[in-house]
Design brief:
The protein is built from 17 helices and no strands. With 416 residues, the chain is an all-alpha fold.
């Protein structure tokens, strides 16, 4: 019936579903807010401390709670009504942004010292790590409940495209707002954007947990999700490849240092550089929406990760703004290819009643690697210097992709 109603071939099949449109609208404003916040916090911390290692500590502050709670969060997601869980999470994010807004005002600067504000920012980011563990995977779980399986690849591409457009816009606008209306004005925009996300998500229908899932005990349910991931070799391979690539490719977390001290382009240039990766990813996702890959997806994913590492090396050695921008943009094109393939594999391979746990395992291994990679970059920048640390990250990403090509035969031969 779903196949007859929505069709299976057109690039706009998923967006014909009204509830899917509400979901991606809510996700757009949610990701836009998060990217603006991360851009602002990275710049703000560096301006307060002048220490690349302090940027790395932002990632560590968020990843500790996100990683610690990921498996339990997956169980909670599968057991919970999804719409309410998303609304609650976005509301908590709004509260976190409001606290940062308070720190940025004249009242905050006169009440707290700079070190006190830095500690406060880390505390807020720690809290967002807790919220993220429960909120982020829920969006992907909702996707499979709203969209018929036959058009999941198309819906996944639209979902990733929405994420990327919101991400690039948030990064770029974050830099522009910092330059023109300051931290306080930018945080006010972030708070308003979270409210727009809540407005869109409010229109979703309630989605109760699967009945057979509610019969399982907590730890048994968590173990079942882990066992599924480790038994599904191509899924495990895709997650592992992305995890290591994101971890070592997290050297782009040093963009505030490059923009401020090496390329000397200020907050506006920082916002553009921060958006470059996502601009490239948008290009690849748009291309894949209209011309989806039919064969050799596994090979293309591994090759894309290897190319991503090479682009990071080019960015590290560049002394020209536009070459740096181009290197990050091409890295984004390759990252977008990898992202769409991995997202499609997860949606197609995972039963609905286990999606919360599997998405949380993915979040634990891949998404948390962003923050761990940010910390690794800050630490290596402190030990090796900024430029050598970014070169090291790019080289390690290339090595990981090469090793995966040689060792992970099932992932290399994967097609869907």
């Amino acid at each position: 019936m779903d196949e007859l109603r929505y069709g299976t071939t057109g690039p706009f099949e998923a967006v014909k579903i009204p509830e899917f449109r509400h979901l991606i609208a809510g996700r757009f404003f949610f990701i836009f807010s998060l990217r603006m916040m991360s851009t602002l916090v990275g710049w703000w911390i560096y301006q307060l401390t002048s220490a690349p290692f302090a940027i790395g500590l932002i990632g560590l502050s968020e990843v500790i709670p996100a990683l610690s709670l990921a498996l339990y969060a997956g169980y909670v997601i599968d057991m919970s009504e999804k719409r309410r869980l998303m609304l609650r999470g976005v509301s908590f994010y709004f509260c976190a942004a409001a606290v940062l807004l308070l720190f940025s005002t004249g009242y905050g600067s006169t009440t707290f010292t700079d070190p006190g504000i830095v500690i406060g920012i880390y505390a807020v980011i720690f809290c967002t790590g807790i919220i993220r563990a429960f909120t982020g995977p829920t969006f992907n779980v909702m996707l499979a409940m709203i969209v018929p399986r036959v058009i999941l690849p198309n819906a996944t591409t639209w979902n990733q495209g929405t994420w990327l457009i919101a991400s690039v816009t948030g990064h770029a606008m974050g830099g522009l707002f910092i330059a023109h209306i300051g931290n306080t004005g930018a945080l006010a925009v972030i708070c308003c954007s979270f409210l727009l996300s809540l407005s869109a998500l409010w229109r979703l229908k309630k989605h109760a947990p699967e009945k057979k899932q509610t019969e399982k005990r907590g730890w048994d349910s968590v173990k079942e999700g882990l066992q599924f991931v480790f038994k599904t070799k191509d899924l495990l391979g895709a997650i592992s490849l992305d995890m290591f690539a994101v971890f070592f490719g997290g050297a782009v977390a040093m963009v505030p240092v490059f923009a401020s001290d090496i390329l000397k382009v200020g907050p506006e240039g920082f916002g553009i550089l921060n958006a470059a990766n996502d601009i490239g990813a948008i290009c690849s996702v748009l291309l894949l929406t209209f011309f989806p890959m039919r064969r050799n997806q596994g090979r293309r994913m591994i090759a894309a990760v290897a190319g991503f590492g090479i682009c990071i090396i080019v960015f590290a050695v560049s002394e020209w703004f536009w070459l740096s921008f181009f290197a990050l943009m091409v890295a984004g094109v390759l990252d977008g290819i990898s992202m769409v393939i991995r997202g499609t594999i997860m949606q197609l391979k995972t039963p609905n009643e286990m999606k919360g746990r599997v998405m949380s395992v993915n979040s634990m291994f891949v998404n948390s690697s962003n923050e761990l990679g940010q910390f690794e970059s800050g630490l290596m920048a402190r030990l090796m210097g900024v430029i050598p640390s970014v070169i090291f990250g790019g080289c390690m990403t290339f090595v990981v992709a090469t090793a995966t090509w040689i060792k992970a035969k099932k992932l290399r031969q994967l097609e869907y």
